[in-house]
Design brief:
seven-stranded parallel beta sheet, 7 helices, 7 strands, alpha/beta
Amino acid sequence: MNHSGRRIVVTGASRGLGQAMTRGFAGEGHTVWGCSRSADAVARLRDEFPSPHRFEMVDVTDASRVAEWAESLLADNDPPDLLVNNAAVINRNAPLWELDTDEFHQTIDVNINGVFHVIRAFVPAMVARGSGVIVNFSSGWGRSVSADVASYCATKFAIEGLTQAMAAELPSGMAAVPLNPGVIHTEMLESCFGTHASAYPDPETWAQRAVPFLLKLGPKDNGRPLTVPA
């Protein structure tokens, strides 16, 4: 696979790991198609990364909006070479039985349904072409558990299974990878670790390792649960 001039879809592109990856990919000369739920954040992304990069306000839980976004991109361009499902939320720290229904459903809706909506919108074109890599962000909490983040753990365990099953469905020459990004100092980590989150690398530092790692993924990695090297 050609490592230059790729088209890369990044969900949750306006903050944290998504923003850091966007900067990293763009800095390497790749074209990023990103989304965010915030109109203000999209405006900032468009200012920082003008055409040929494209950014839209998209809530990944809205299947019809995701489909419109993909259709508008695919109408003018070849399918993405790399699709990164990064957008996610975490529940507030609490025992599972103390979460209200809306909190639980939001975590499921963004972290699982949102991934499905993006896959359904973009992957058929990638399959028709017969190439491309789909990376669904998992977590250390998709392979182990901790107290007070049960709904988040459930979604990331689901991403592991969903991605490995999808890998068995893809044609030769493609790959689907469940990726644990590692432990990074983000707002999400602060919600769990508090001030101790600052002991971990920030997203920009993490992206210096993660972006080259992501760009090297290919058919040989299909179905492999991977972790960004520390």
